[in-house]
Design brief:
- It is a single chain.
- Helices cover 33% and strands 24% of the residues.
- By secondary structure, the protein is α/β, with parallel strands linked by helices.
- The chain has a 5-stranded mixed beta sheet with strand order 1-7-6-4-5, sandwiched between helices. It has a 4-stranded mixed beta sheet with strand order 8-13-12-11, sandwiched between helices. A two-stranded antiparallel ribbon has the order 2-3.
- A hairpin with a 3-residue loop joins strand 12 (310-317) and strand 13.
- Helix 3 crosses helix 4 (93-101).
- The two termini are 24 Å apart.
- Bound molecules: oxa(dethia)-CoA.
- Oxa(dethia)-CoA binds at residues 31, 35-36, 39-40, 115, 154-155, 158, 221-222, 224-225, 228, 258-259, 262, 286, 317.
Amino acid sequence: MKNTRAYISAIGMYVPEKRVTNDDMAHLIDTSDEWIRERTGICERRVVADGECNSDLSVKAIENCLSNSGVKAEEIDLLIVPTVTPDMVFPSTACLVQEKLGAKNAWGFDLSGACSGFLYGLATGAQFIQTGTYKKVVVVGTDVMTSIIDPQDRTTCVLFGDGAGAVLLEPTEDEGIGFLDFLLRADGSGGKFLHMPAGGSKIPASHETVDKRMHYVHQDGRTVFKFAVKYMTEVTSEILQRNGRVSADLTLFVPHQANLRIIKSTANRLRLREDQLAVNIERYANTTAATIPISLCEAFRKGRLKKGDLVALASFGAGFTWGSVLLRWGI
Ligand code: UT7
């Protein structure tokens, strides 16, 4: 009997039209284009229009993805929406997306994995394909980070943007393509270094929580930076090693886009060449669950990937959560 593997059969993305440059930010808070570029590599970010929300971005990214596949929304079996910025606490964004998209035969759920959400979602979706349970799973990493960043906190507000990236997973029996391995990790002791303190059952919303600015992202940037480099390097080395590969075998390495210095330090430690690296942080900043699918989508569209190419994805984010996915490109 042949093994069924999951593979990415289509990919798409959506970013809001509105661009906010570093100079625009410098008009609002005490920062500068020079500081942001040098410390993060970010030049501009996309920001939702008034009234535009997570499910709008998700639907546009999925429609873009499906338009490249010939698959109709009604054919989707399962919708996974990795995000930390759902439209609302409930119903799930997956349900709202299902309705707007007309994916009437799909069930779905949101997945809270922060910057690793997309990789957690890929691994989860692939299991449903590999067991033969489903034929068409959509994973859409989407975040509207501007809805939870403090516009007065220069240490966080310059770092994030809004966007969505979607993939369609389908089964294949072609041994030359598809998912090879997933390596996912979590360490809850890191939770305090990157979190949004209020709005959940621990500290429900009140006038006090609003006054204390507790519904915004709070981050110990230096600590997060240090662990991001260490863990993305370790997890990528380990996944390569246990699959009998070395970094030179990779056509493309797609890291989470949080800071260009994190990406470069990780790439140096993995001994990757610049032409193996997917980087687009300069245009979109950190879009949390969306950075990896957007980067992968852009790399594919630029002709940087062909069928059979070896690709590693790596993430690190709040939780702490981190992980790596190894695959052979299948489109
Ligand atoms: O996706 C989730 C994962 N998140 C990350 O991976 C983020 C990881 N961390 C980072 O990317 C970096 O730590 C930051 C970009 C957040 C900060 O860079 P840094 O080199 O670690 O700077 P710092 O926090 O040590 O701050 C250096 C200085 C401080 O001033 P003093 O104390 O030296 O006087 C900050 O107040 O830079 C100041 N600063 C700013 N100055 C101008 C902080 N933010 C800004 C700003 N503009 N926007």
